[in-house]
Amino acid sequence: MTQRPALAAAIVAMTLLGCLARAAEPGQATRPEQTAAPGQAAAPERSTTPEHTTASEPAAYSAAGLYNLGNSYARAGKPGMAVLNYERASLLAPDDPDIETNLRFVRNSAHLPPESSNAIERYVKRIDPTLLAWAGVLGVLLAGVSLIAGRLSGRKTAGDHSGGRRTDTRRIGARRGLRRAALLVGVALMGVTVGQAVVLWPRLHAAVVVTDAAPVRVSPVPMGDLLFTLPEAETVKVSAEHEGFVLIRTRTGRTGWVSRSNVVPVLPRR
Amino acid sequence: MHLFRPHWLAALTALFLAAAPAFAVAPLVNATLEPRQISVGESAQLTITSSGTGMEPITLPDVPGLEFRVVGQSRRNEIIHGATLATTSIIVRITAETPGIFTIPGITPKSQPLVLRVNPDNGTGGPTPPGGSGFSGRPPVAAGGSTANGIRLTADGSAFVKLNLPKHEVYVGESIPVDIEVGMRAGFVTSLNGLPTLTGSEFTLNNLSRQPERVEKLIDGKPFTLLTWHSVLAPVKPGTFTLSVETPLTVRIRTRPPKDTLIDDLLGDPFMQNFFGTTVPKDITVSSPPTDLTVLALPTEGRPPNFSGAVGTFKIASELSSATAVTGDPLTLRMRVSGAGNFDRVDSPMLDHLDQWKTYPPKSSFKSGDAVGYKGEKTFEQPLIASRPGAQTLPGLTFGYFDPTTRRYETARSAPLNVTISPSLADSTLTAPQTPAAATAPAARSQNGLRPDHPAAQVFVHSLLPLYLQPRFLALPSLLALAFAAGWLGLRRRAAADSGPRRRERLSKAANQVLTQMELARRSGDSTLFFNSARSGLQQRLAARWQIEPDQVTLDELDARMGGVDESQEIGEDSEIAEIREIFALADEANYAGHEMTRIDFDRWTQFMRRQLAEERAA
Prior knowledge:
By secondary structure, chain A is of the alpha+beta class. Helix content of chain A is about 50%, strand content about 15%. Among the domains of chain A are: about 5-10 and about 125-200; about 210-265, Roll (SH3 type barrels). Chain A has helices at about 5-25, 40, 65-75, 80-90, 95-110, 120-125, 130-155, 165-205; strands at about 205-210, 215, 225-230, 235-240, 245-250, 255-260, 265. In chain A, helix 4 runs antiparallel to helix 5 (about 95-110). By secondary structure, chain B is of the alpha+beta class. Helix content of chain B is about 25%, strand content about 35%. Chain B contains eleven helices and 29 strands. Chain B has helices at about 5-25, 260-265, 270-275, 435-440, 470-500, 500-525, 525-545, 555-560, 565-570, 575-590, 600-619; strands spanning about 30-35, 35-40, 45-50, 65-80, 85-95, 100-105, 115-120, 160-165, 170, 175-185, 190, 195-200, 205, 215-220, 220-235, 240-245, 245-255, 280-285, 290-295, 310-320, 325, 330-340, 355-360, 365-370, 375-385, 390-395, 400-405, 410-415, 415-420. In chain B, a hairpin with a 2-residue loop joins strand 14 (about 215-220) and strand 15. In chain B, helix 6 packs antiparallel against helix 11 (about 600-619), helix 7 (about 525-545) runs parallel beside helix 11 (about 600-619) and helix 8 (about 555-560) packs antiparallel against helix 10 (about 575-590). Classes of the chains: A alpha+beta, B alpha+beta. At the A-B interface, helix 1, helix 2, helix 3, helix 4 and helix 5 of A face strand 25, helix 4, helix 5 and helix 8 of B.
């Protein structure tokens, strides 16, 4: 009875992850703009000045490097850049309490309201994404093997209730139970992986205001009418881009166009 | 003497007294027409004067081509030699609609008919007939002659219009500031019915001030209210044209001959004039004297490529909103064009294309320095966004225009602007700021409430994207899922194939094998092999029927499934069920204890199995 839904769930999970991965690719909707040398990310203590930034091949990141970079910006009085790097560090090490503490501290210092999330989101966010990725693969394996084994070992066991020899029936029942358990565990692992992807989705499309005050305009032109002003370090959701402007949505639901130079996406563009 | 006896004297007195009212009720009616010769559209005044105590009601005549309208009535009492004489006057305005000689019948039976000669229209501003001071549908403007100021009054001297042009040779598109003066004789002009307009179509009158300047002025010793409009005249095509301005007015036209207007001038106040019935209201259009104006075409030689049609005297200046900026930040480049001329044609694309800059179309705003927009300053604002950091120089801006004073094209230029562009924070997100704290040891305690730095990491990743969203990694579970799906579908298809003809063929082949083994066992007298083969054949048959594995077909399974009525009907007779169970039991017995069988027994069970398997093949 559970074979078809389980197989469908596995395929849907993989498809969903594929779609999320494709949509989360940072270089697809946006043009390549910002790169940095791996060494700079790896060793923030080298602390080069912004004027010495050079474009290079794709950067290498580490949670510690981004965290230290965020600390440096926080000490330098740039909460926007600090929040940005903390957010990036939390993508790599979501269970690091230092990152979360400093992020909250900088937000509070910038007089920004704390982020609100429920317990499930907080729990799912804390799981290491890399670990969860392999768990998802394990889930696919478990679900797939259980389905194949079920198909191989027995056809439709309509006569489960019929008894038979006690040893055979017991053995058959044990195998069936094992297969069902493996299937459930596999589906659960895939579900947790997909769940975290869904929870992290807004953060992957978020951006942080890195200037003192970012004017939000009605239209994506410099002379557009001013709607409101975003404070530095505010995190917004980016939903579209046009001619050097990005369409943002604040946590309170207000939308408008901001110059791309005023905000930096949490997920760096390739 | 006897005639003057008292009773005769009394009778004559009574007779005179009785006859006096009879003389009084027979008034003397006199009608005068002035003037007797007018033009089409003009009016003449018909005055009907009745001397006496009363006046019979009059009926206006109906003469085709003439319009009659009563415009006033007055009553006057005169004392002549101690006697009071009452005179009643009715003033009728006769307006000529067609030319010709018209005979106006007597207003009363006793009045004489009058003749009015109507000439064809002699045009606007044409002279009125000599001695004519009557009504005029269009303004008789030249009769009064010109004054020292070049003013040409209307025929009755009630109003004038004057157009002040600074020059009489202009260029196409050039803006010429003009003043339009409308003089209105105090007390004679009752209302201004519209703004001044041009009579020709070769010019446009732009930015006419809504509220004219108003001054009181004496002209030829008579009080006038002078209204002055400021405007800008713009010729639209080259050539020599005659220009005039006209204004609609409502004036009070004198109804008395010119020789009597001296009293009117003395009265002055319209209330007094109305009181004495000397004026009537009339809508007229007053025109200014025609002025010749030569419009020259703009030369084609030396025309700048960016010439937008601006004619005048201009100068430009440019500035940048900030001398420093970061890449991606919009800067505003402003160009200010100031001077005098046709600012509506002042336009500039500014910096249309600039390397390493993103340019936007400029917006313009105009700040007028006068009431008509002839002088002022036009500001162009162009947003610019630098795409590369570094010190950069914006080129100077140019503006081409035609200067009518020098009679040639000029190009105004502004100085280049320097700007320093620094990298955007978005370009340096992975660069730590140079602060003392950043240079300290990672383990150093933060002094700002921050948790300390972490030791430098040894493991790096090339993307912040979670691993399960990276396409390369995602290929692994996707391929696994596809493989499992393919395997599952393959097995499912195979199982479906097993239930078809191939399954029957396989069962038939298995049945033949079973019968062959049973035959060999029968020949050799091996009961164990015989019953095991028979049981195997039955297991395969029942397993295929019940969709379970052959191993699962046991004696208990047989009892459970074939115990009901429906199940027994599937197999056939009850005896067959018993024989099947007996074969299963005999097979167990032969395996564990051995079983001696006669030839008859072998034949019996062989026949039974052949029958069972034959049914299967037939099914």
